UniProtKB/TrEMBL annotation:
Pfam families: Rieske, Ring_hydroxyl_A. One of its GO terms (molecular function) is dioxygenase activity. Residues 45-151 form the Rieske domain. The keyword Ligase does not apply. It comes from Azohydromonas lata. CDD domains: RHO_alpha_C_GbcA-like, Rieske_RO_Alpha_N. Its cofactor is Fe cation. Belongs to the bacterial ring-hydroxylating dioxygenase alpha subunit family. This is Aromatic ring-hydroxylating dioxygenase subunit alpha.
Length: 417
């Protein structure tokens, strides 16, 4: 099919049937990818990092999000700031991607120099009448959510980020993310569209057959089941599990640990879901045996039996446990390649080889991420096949996929597509 005869993006969005996967073109077409980047990674709040990665004044993290460059830094007064990584002279990138330490921001092209607060303080050979005050770095809206850093690159950031902050600040406080450190980071390039990466993460229909390491520590019944397909004995077990989960959740809440599920996944701008779930196996952490991997617990935590607090967004997922945290962010690279950057956090005073073994800390999610990368690549190959037709979602195990697809279409249409 020639480009001239391809259906319009708006018609593709309108053709999505309720409770079904998205049409193929929404996963494969370059024009859709460009629209996705503009809508979801320019004009919505996205997870980009962690406050503990810039603990001291002058610390900076630099990353690319599509064509946009972003600088996250802590200024001399200790405030977290974000700027577009483009010089106000002729647009050169000021800093290279990655972690760095700065005293001033100096463009390597013509040595225009900026304070960590963004003000231009040195612009050689521009003449005595040149007004530096109107050439500050362009700021980026940044919100600190309990130690997780979100930015919106657009000029009108959605105001409902306040809901995410209100919900998560209290939930995350005991984990002390601001007093944590990154023990390990792994970047995986998945050969699939970013929406396939997110969809794969939002269901565990596939987990029993694909993630033996992860399955040691979770209860499959937490992720949905079909009562009609169960025997009387299986149904009784499932009903008891749900009753136990509700009772445990109430007990945790009474003890001061927010646990109930909160979700804003449709009819909103800032998409998120959170819930505290019990850990199976050893009952403490997502490790090969379910026991804690780090002897020094996170933040002010004194217990290992408080399960796993999930937090999903439209470009990442997090697992907060008593002994460590797993935080993953998703950055699209092309229509069919996606960066998944996973970080393992421990208490800032925890010592590798003394308080934790790195392999034990990371084994489960390294294996799970590699397995997911294979599944996403298989999905991408499938949606590119001429035989692909959007399939119907399971009402029992894929409800969140239906929500995500519906939210995606809503937000695209709200931005004029």
């Amino acid at each position: 099919m020639s480009t001239a005869t391809l259906p319009s993006l708006s018609s593709l969005l309108s053709s999505r049937r309720p409770h079904h996967a998205l049409p193929a073109g929404l996963y494969t077409r370059p024009d859709v990818f460009e629209a996705d980047m503009q809508v979801f990674f320019q004009n919505h709040w996205i997870l980009v990092g962690l406050e503990c990665e810039i603990p001291e004044p002058g610390d900076a993290q630099v990353l690319d999000i599509g064509k946009a460059g972003l600088i996250l830094l802590r200024d001399d007064d200790g405030q977290v700031r974000a700027f577009h990584n483009t010089c106000r002279h002729r647009g050169a990138r000021i800093l290279d991607a990655g972690a760095t330490v700065i005293s001033k921001l100096v463009c390597p092209y013509h040595q225009w120099t900026y304070e960590p607060t963004g003000e231009l303080i040195h612009a050689p050979h521009m003449g005595v009448d040149f007004d530096k005050s109107c050439r500050s770095l362009k700021p980026v809206a940044v919100r600190n959510v309990g130690g997780l850093l979100y930015v919106c690159l657009g000029e009108n950031p959605p105001k409902d980020i306040a809901v995410l902050q209100d919900v998560m600040e209290e939930r995350l406080a005991p984990y002390g993310l601001r007093d944590a450190k990154v023990a390990h980071q792994v970047d995986v390039i998945e050969k699939g569209n970013w929406k396939l990466t997110m969809e794969n993460n939002r269901e565990c229909y596939h987990c029993v057959g694909s993630h033996p390491e992860l399955c040691v520590t979770f209860f499959d019944l937490d992720f949905g089941f079909d009562p009609a397909a169960m025997s009387a004995e299986e149904r009784a077990r499932a009903e008891q599990h749900v009753a136990d989960r509700i009772a445990r959740e109430k007990r945790w809440e009474a003890e001061g640990f927010k646990s109930s599920h909160v979700e804003r996944v449709i009819d909103c701008e800032t998409n998120f879901r959170t819930q505290r779930l019990a850990i199976n196996g050893g009952g403490e952490s997502q490790t090969p045996d379910g026991k804690a991997a780090c002897a020094k617990l996170m933040g002010s935590m004194t217990r290992k039996d408080l399960g796993d607090t999930h937090l999903w967004g439209h470009n990442g997922w997090n697992h907060f446990m008593g002994d460590h945290v797993v935080s993953a962010m998703v950055i699209p690279l092309t229509a069919d390649t996606t960066l998944v950057r996973t970080k393992w956090l421990v208490h800032k005073d925890a010592r590798e080889g003394v308080d934790y073994d790195l392999n034990r800390l990371t084994d489960v999610w390294i294996a799970t991420t590699d397995q997911d990368a294979d599944l996403v690549a298989r999905s991408q190959a499938g949606v590119q096949d001429p035989a692909y037709e959007p399939g119907v979602y399971s009402p029992h195990t894929e409800k969140q996929l239906d929500n995500f697809a519906s939210w995606y279409v809503q937000r695209m249409q709200a931005h004029g597509y």
